[in-house]
Each structure stands twice: as structure tokens, then as C-alpha cells.
UniProtKB/TrEMBL annotation:
The gene is dapB. Pathway: Amino-acid biosynthesis; L-lysine biosynthesis via DAP pathway; (S)-tetrahydrodipicolinate from L-aspartate: step 4/4. Its EC number is 1.17.1.8. This is 4-hydroxy-tetrahydrodipicolinate reductase. InterPro entries: DapB_C, DapB_N, DapB_N_CS, DHDPR_bac, NAD(P)-bd_dom_sf. NADP(+) binds at residue 39. Keywords: Amino-acid biosynthesis, Cytoplasm, Diaminopimelate biosynthesis, Lysine biosynthesis, NAD, NADP, Oxidoreductase. Catalyzes the conversion of 4-hydroxy-tetrahydrodipicolinate (HTPA) to tetrahydrodipicolinate. It is found in: Cytoplasm. Homotetramer. Residues 132-268 form the Dihydrodipicolinate reductase C-terminal domain. One of its GO terms (molecular function) is 4-hydroxy-tetrahydrodipicolinate reductase.
Amino acid sequence: MTETTPGIVIMGAAGRMGRMLVQAVCDSDQARLAGAVVREGHDWVGQDVGHAMGGPAMGVIATSDPLEAMARAQGVIDFTTPETTLEIAHLAAQARAVHVIGTTGFTDAQIEKLVPASRHCTQIRAGNMSLGVNLLTGLTGMVAAALDEGWDIEVVEAHHNQKADAPSGTALMLGEAAAKARGVTLSQVADRGRDGITGARTEGHIGFSAIRGGDIVGEHDVIFAGKGERIVLRHMATDRMIFARGALRAVLWGQGRPPGQHDMIDVLGLGR
């Protein structure tokens, strides 16, 4: 490591995803761990992160103060909550640090509130950081553009039983890709919950179904159902480390770039 190696802060470092992000940064020869933030009152506060994770010292003390952690950082990786992410976006803008956002569950209004911060720092937000899912997103748009509204689109996702939001951020990202390809706004055509006597399916709508159970890492199907045939695009994640590696790739990609909003399609150079 050198003085020019980007220092990265991990938000929510004590969580399942946070620990993987810490490990991904520490395993990289292109980044260094500059800070680890946990919630106030957590038993990690004041401890060396390595010791807190049950391993050797890393030389970084966990804190509940994100401002302190980001004081000398060049990037922050943030898989937390929408409310926390909005606070971190403001701090990242002040620090001119690359802000990688893996947080999901935003409302449209909250997403709009991220825009001012992106005028002062590079902001990379994606419902999913994996290469495979972003390839799936591109394929979804291609297929949706090729088929007319006579083909019904359904997005089915499955996650572990502790996931708090539904549909998943990835499912919504896939829905957005399909809607954009059809020249419509997802919020106008999304069917996000069906129960009881719902009546016939509305042509052109995009449906979502969510499954929660066990320790499922993440599975997403995009179903195009026509008369007499179906096309099913699927991605299955078996290791959460793919998200950590993707987020690290994003924060490194953002170094030295001008302020603005980006997503993983930009990071991976997959085009639009």
C-alpha cells in the first residue's frame, strides 16, 4: 500500500454484508480500509475491526461517527437504510468521496434527495452490484424491446428471511429496464401485490412476486409469457461476496471521476 492507495470506509461494518465488504477491501491490493462505522451503542465501538471480527488486528477502530471515519477517506461503501444513506450522501459530498450505494428500499422522493450530493461527488447506486445481475438487466431490456405488450412480464425474486424490503432493489431494477425498453414509467405499470379477487391482468403491466425464506442469497427470474410460449431469464447468487467484490470495483472505478450519478452498467462498461 502507498499513500495514494484509496482509503475506503464501510458503513454498517458489523452486519453480514458489512463484514464481507471489510474483508473484500482488506484482501485487495488496490484499496485500504480507512474506517468502519457501526450503529451507536454497538459493542464494536472502540474495538479494532479485525479483533471484533474474530481475527488479527487491522489497525482500524470501529466508530459510530461517520464524519470521523470519512475525514481522510476517498470512498465510502454504503449498504444501510435509505435514511442513513441520505445522511451519508451529504457527508460524502462534503468530503468529495466516491459514494457507492447498495442500499435498497428507497422511495422516489428519497432517490430525488440524493441528487444534490451527486453534484459534488461521484455517486454510484445500484440495486445489485454483481456482474451477472447487471448482464441480466441488459438482457431484460433487449427482450422487452423486442416483444410487444401481448407478452406479459413478471419478475419473481427470492431472498433470505431477514430481508426487510420487497420487491428487492434488484427486482425493481429489472422492472425498470423492461419498462424503459417499452417506453413507459415503471410506477405507472407495476403490479406489486396481488391478493383476493384482482380481476384479469392488465395488458402491458409488469408484475412482481417476492419469496422470503431460509438463507437464500438472491434469485431473480424475469418471465416473458406469450401465447403458447415463455421466455425465462434467471440469475442465482450463491455467495454474497459477489456483491462485495462488485461494490469494491465500483468505488475504485469512481476514483478521479467528476461528480455525477452512475450505476453498475457504467462501472462494468456494458453500455445502454
